[in-house]
User: Which sequence fits this backbone?
């Protein structure tokens, strides 16, 4: 906020470019039967769709989060492991004047919501249980 209490975008113009990376995780709790069917649901392969949705969402983060700087992403990855729960780990990288934490968090969140959307017809007890930043680096 500025001195008057108004929200504003932070000016990062004077900061030097640096290589930045962030990793975020989301957890989706599903029934065991749902977990075994995620690649073959009535809507299709939830794992493949969630990976794509997460990458696409990271690229649009500045359109979704007010005051978030648009960044030239150099890499986004979404990895999904299905066990007792669905673990989604998203990483985002850039060379810019500000970090990519929001991009990683948005990627993980949207991937989790995609799993939820695609499986909701067969599992009404699912929950997105956790979204958190695991790591951020700057070099």
Assistant:
């Amino acid at each position: 906020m500025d001195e008057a209490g108004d929200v504003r975008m932070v000016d990062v113009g004077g900061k030097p470019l640096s290589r930045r990376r962030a990793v975020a995780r989301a957890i989706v709790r599903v029934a065991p039967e749902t977990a075994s069917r995620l690649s073959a649901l009535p809507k299709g392969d939830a794992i493949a769709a969630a990976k794509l949705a997460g990458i696409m969402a990271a690229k649009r983060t500045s359109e979704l989060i007010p005051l978030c700087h648009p960044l030239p992403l150099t890499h986004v990855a979404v990895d999904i492991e299905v066990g007792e729960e669905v673990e989604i780990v998203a990483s985002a990288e850039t060379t810019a004047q500000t970090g990519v934490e929001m991009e990683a968090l948005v990627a993980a969140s949207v991937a989790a919501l995609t799993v939820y959307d695609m499986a909701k017809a067969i599992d009404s007890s699912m929950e997105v249980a956790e979204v958190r930043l695991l790591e951020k680096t700057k070099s």
Residues 101-119 form the longest helix (19 residues).
